[in-house]
């Protein structure tokens, strides 16, 4: 369809720096897509501030608001439907997406993970924990991975991956910062690949 912009939702829990880099990349690279929803389990997160500043609708959804997991999942599907979302981008969303949502958006949900999956993934492996584990294992390199989300945590097919070195004297924080810089390039590359469907 001429001039159709693919409608994206971003799910965040924290700062939202990946969301910001994706948002700016859409404009800078002229990618025919737009954010129509920012969903978070934490209403006070940086991602919501950014969304508000850019007139992107926000929805706060936390499992705690619901009596059952099914009701939570149904509310998430309703929000996605109401905003006519076509693709979901998990960007620092530190909760498991309900299986019914994963299934409804099979092949249409991406996640970014701050390590070289399949290493250092799975339950408990998020944020600074990942970088601590990488350093404790004595790895010589780390990196970032963008993958499709399937019902198994951090196990879906990899779309793009990029390595960064682990440097002598690295702390979890210094490694996190190097990996995050890499993420801010990698996620826009992956989104462009997804939307344009071409090799970069
Ligand atoms: C990013 O490093 C992202 O890869 C990580 O959380 C951070 C969010 O930062 N995600 C995970 O660990 C998921 N397992 P951001 O809010 O500034 O984008």
Key words describing this protein structure:
200 residues, alpha/beta, Rossmann fold, 2 domains, seven-stranded mixed beta sheet, 7 strands, 37% helix, globular, binds glycinamide ribonucleotide, EC 2.1.2.2, Formyl_transf_N_sf
Report on the structure:
By secondary structure, the chain is α/β, with parallel strands linked by helices. It has 2 domains: 1-105, Formyl transferase, N-terminal domain (Rossmann fold); 113-145 and 160-200, Formyl transferase, N-terminal domain (Rossmann fold), CATH 3.40.50.170. It is built from 6 helices and 7 strands; from the N terminus they run E-H-E-H-E-H-E-H-E-H-E-E-H. A 7-stranded mixed sheet has the order 3-2-1-4-5-6-7, with helices on one face. 36% of the residues are buried. The mean pLDDT is 96. The structure holds glycinamide ribonucleotide (GAR). Glycinamide ribonucleotide binds at residues 12, 14-18, 91-92, 112-114, 126-127, 130, 180, 183. GO terms for molecular function: phosphoribosylglycinamide formyltransferase activity. Residues 7-191 form the Formyl transferase N-terminal domain. The active site is at 113 (proton donor). One of its GO terms (biological process) is 'de novo' IMP biosynthetic process. N(1)-(5-phospho-beta-D-ribosyl)glycinamide binds at residues 16-18.
């Amino acid at each position: 369809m001429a001039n159709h912009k693919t409608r994206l939702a971003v799910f965040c829990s924290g700062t939202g720096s990946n969301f910001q880099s994706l948002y700016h990349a859409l404009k800078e690279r002229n990618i025919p897509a737009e954010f129509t929803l920012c969903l978070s389990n934490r209403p006070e997160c940086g991602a919501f501030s950014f969304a508000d500043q850019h007139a992107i609708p926000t929805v706060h959804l936390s499992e705690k608001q619901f009596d059952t997991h099914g009701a939570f999942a149904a509310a998430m599907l309703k929000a996605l439907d109401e905003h006519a979302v076509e693709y979901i981008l998990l960007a620092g969303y530190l909760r498991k997406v309900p299986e019914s949502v994963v299934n409804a958006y099979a092949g249409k949900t991406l996640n970014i993970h701050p390590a070289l999956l399949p290493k250092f993934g799975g339950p408990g492996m998020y944020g600074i924990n990942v970088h601590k584990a990488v350093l404790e294992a004595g790895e010589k390199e780390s990196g970032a991975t963008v993958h499709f989300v399937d019902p198994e945590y951090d196990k879906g097919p990899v779309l793009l991956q990029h390595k960064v070195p682990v440097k002598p004297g690295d702390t979890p924080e210094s490694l996190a910062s190097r990996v995050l810089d890499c993420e801010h390039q990698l996620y826009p590359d992956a989104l462009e690949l997804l939307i344009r469907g071409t090799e970069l």
